[in-house]
Amino acid sequence: MDEPELIAESEEQELFEHHHFVADKGQGLLRIDKWLMMHVANATRSKIQSAAEAGCILVNGKAVKSSYKIKPADVVSIVLAHPPRLTEIIPEDIPINIVFEDANIIVVNKNPGMVVHPGFANYTGTLVHALAWHLRGIPAPDGNPLRPGLVHRIDKNTSGLLVVAKTDLAMAMLAKEFFEHTIDRAYYALVWGDFVEDEGTVDVPIGRDIRDRRIMSADASNPNAKNAITHFKVIERFGYVTLIECRLETGRTHQIRAHMKYLGHPLFNDETYGGDKILRGTTFSKYRQFVDNCFKLMPRQALHARLVGFVSPTTKQKIVFEAGLPNDFHSVIYKWRKYAAKP
Fold first, then answer.
1. Which long-range contacts (CB under 8 A, 24 or more apart) does 119-127 make?
2. How does the average pLDDT of the chain come out, rounded?
3. Domains of the chain: residue spans and CATH
4. Is 292 noted as a catalytic residue in this protein?
5. Is residue 247's pLDDT more than 80?
6. Which of the following is catalytic: 33, 74, 102, 155?
7. pTM for this one?
């Protein structure tokens, strides 16, 4: 969260922070919530207690309650729901598509073009500002105003589903699911080129490109790269482009976009990763005009978060949400389907 570009755009960057401590050999008995407040910057006692209730505080590998008394040489791990807030959010009356809401969560189907979280060059007009307006005046169980909590994000120009927490406990529970990679996430992507295989897995670390920090690169030799795994499956072939489904095991910045570029199949009209020009096809002017028309129909990367599934903080049961393709994506698929069907 230190770099402005990470705040402005992130495909599925997990919004939690993980801490690991070893108690001093001379440590006296003390409640772990009080002890952690002295060791984790900007952490409130209520946030730590919610983390404990969600099973996010481990001592010597086992989950403990907030009343646990820390002992000398205890090994403590904690996953907190989100880093410290960078700015005060002023609610804004912006229309959003809420597909589900209960006492603890909101599931939103985000339109392309909307930034999720305020940051560098995007201080207003974000999804968080819209959610703050939606939640204005509604008290949380502890009496404080509700505020939207993000545990994952998608890029400004990616459409689709996001789950948002309304309470600290929900935030802690969802952050734990993301940290343990038990959240189900599936995307539709239209990419350049055809695949030999019908399905496959990309297991290549991703980090900021050492030559251009504005982009991410799949490169095992990059010392800053982190483990990243994407499973893909062909949905429909159009000859020069292919519709695929991608399922994420990890949640690195621009993971699908970087992994598809690594495979030689950049996302259709992805300006950042080289997909905004003709990479496959003929040299005929009619074909060039056809592709240009597709670019104009969908002036963004062809990526849609179509499914999210997780254990509900309210019912403790698995719930799954799906969102169909937005109009721009659907229109481009229709055009490619007609083009591919021509004799």
1. 119/4, 119/5, 119/6, 119/7, 119/8, 119/86, 120/4, 120/5, 120/7, 120/8, 121/4, 121/8, 122/8, 122/156, 123/87, 124/90, 124/92, 125/92, 125/94, 127/96, 127/162
2. 86
3. 4-13+85-181 (3.30.2350.10), 17-80 (3.10.290.10), 185-307+319-341 (3.30.2350.10)
4. no
5. yes
6. 155
7. 0.80
